[in-house]
Amino acid sequence: MAHAVSTSAGAHGGHDAGQGGGHHGDHHDQESLKMFGFWLFLITDVILFGTLFATFVVLRFNTAAGPTPAELIELQGIIISTFILLTSSFTSGIAVLEMNKGNKRGLILWLAITALLGASFVYLEVTEFMHLVHEGAAIGTSAYWSAFFTLVGTHGLHVSLGLVWMIALMLQLSRRGITPVTKRKVNIISLYWHFLDVVWIFVFTIVYLMGVM
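^ thats the sequence. predicted structure below, dont judge the formating
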């Protein structure tokens, strides 16, 4: 009888362990699937920006006898914006390092600094758009300015969405702390932010430097 009870308990324990392992495996599979979904999203974004860049290059001389970028774009302000965004990429990397150390306060602090820099970038971009429109270069002025506002504005929209995402993540971190789920989310937002920085380098080079020069 004792042997039967022991065997039954062992079988029950093995069943529970199997269930635990199954739940753990399911959770791991869900996390991997979500990460895969993010990479698919990033690939579609690469295609989107590639199309916008190609369109801009084709239309870059079609100003319809209207204002040209060399006349209106103030490169000094764009350089400041570029420095701010690249700095935010650096601070987001520090946030990941703090997360890997298990420092929740440091992680939230550096994410907040990154968000503040990102918000400053968006503010400067909106200010630039208002200046251009005031000077007579709106999205409907010519094919060039349509391509310009669409490309630069799409990047700015991505940065704005990243800011909303980052703020929501900071709130979640303050409530739940550093967990496997929040770790994945921090890694994803950091990759997304680095991607936007790389895109901006192309925008700065192709749209602004080539446009002004």
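The chain has one domain: 37-212.
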